[in-house]
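user: can you give me the structure for this one chain? tokens are fine.
assistant: on it. calling the predictor now.
[tool input]
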Amino acid sequence: MKKAIVIGSGIGGLASAIRLAKEGCKVMLFEANPFIGGKINNKKLGKYRFDTGPSVFTAPHYIEDLYKFAHKPFNFPYKKIDEGFRYFYPDGTRFTLPNDREEQVKLLSEKLGENPTTLHQYLDKAAKNYKLISPLFIEKSLHNFKSLLGWKLVKALVNISSYALSETMNSENKKFFFNPKTLQFFNRFATYNGSDPYKAPAMLNMISHLEVNEGVYLPEKGMQQISSALGDLCKELGVKFYLNEKVEEIQLNGRDVRGIRTKNGLYPADIVVSNMDINFTYEKLLPQEKIPKNILEQEKSSSAVVFYWGIKKSFPELGLHNVFFNTDYRDEFHTIFDDKQIYFDPSIYVNITSKEVESDAPKGCENWFVMVNVPNNVGQNWEDAIPTLRNIILSRLSKELDTDLSALIEVEDVMSPISIEKDYFGKMGAIYGNASNNKFAAFYRHSNKHNNIKGLYFAGVSVHPGGGIPLALNAAKLAVEYAKKDFKL
């Protein structure tokens, strides 16, 4: 029986532990925090419960696949919600996107004046590109060419012109749509991996497929159910947890993994999977190893400031997911990525799980997760910036909802790039590792396997294939597939 250690209990770490245990390894999972789940967690403030991190649940089949792999019954209750996002534009335009493709096209054509045929063509293209690309570049490793060979690669290459490799997300979207509101609607999906739609490659427009074509879901008890359920699955398979035990070094014996070291001593292992941010894995855990600068010195993704507000009122005009757009989307991204400053008129996302999970807030009240995109941390004065941002957000939302929100906040907390780096070990507070702001970005993701250290593998959103829950689950799968091959598990 091989001994395996997983560093970090984010979703990629949990999934890696499940797969290693099922492959017959004795698995130990180390977590620096007193809780599992990484950013997919929750907090309670008074009588309010908040999901702390990711709030959009798509592609639930990847969770189902994990249970199937473990040969365990799928006891993970979730549902497809009745609506997608509610959108609010500065000129007063508002609409709620149905969670059905045909109804979506009808609504967008009516509200934004776009041609229904063009909308169908765009969404069909997103679906086609996703189905061509995901089996190769999401569910397979870009760093193992042999795994890509086959009919699926031929199909992907035959359709290469459809990927618009020379275009950005925005420039391709402008070929389909004339209304600036529609462009904002589809450009928004760049934020799902912390990128700039005016720089990110057009191929990333396929991100919209999961949400718009396939729909939005919600675990019955909120997003934290994902980490708690996978944690339970780990325990069923015999994974041993070491909470509040920060890994200080990955130990080597020549070019073979030897194990890890914590404050409590040495833990030997044949296999180590790091779900820690890849930059910090090298900097903090492998200080003697040469850093792959061409990968790790790439531009980092955006970060976020999140306010958790318990609101002493219910707002029927709001739903589970709400987006308040600004007047100049391009300027917002320029300020975030080029000027590295907070934007004075940010787009605002408000997630309210109590709309679907009533126990998350007292009756007649709501739990607001209020997020804006901000630059990663390069030494800005966050102590001054966060109160300024709070006032801007409250002013904007109070005007939009015709209510003084500041008087309704009963409990409050905040997450910032500083706390993201401190609590979740994301370098510079970047949420997704590298940004995807150039056409070769997919190739600048670190492999799920170390090139010349046997037994060292990588999972999580900062390595291939990238950010988001579906991709993190695939990173774990790829890391364990490498280990299985190397150790003949």
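assistant: here you go. Residues 42-55+79-99+215-220+302-431 form a domain with the Polyamine Oxidase; Chain A, domain 2 fold (CATH 3.90.660). The mean pLDDT is 92.
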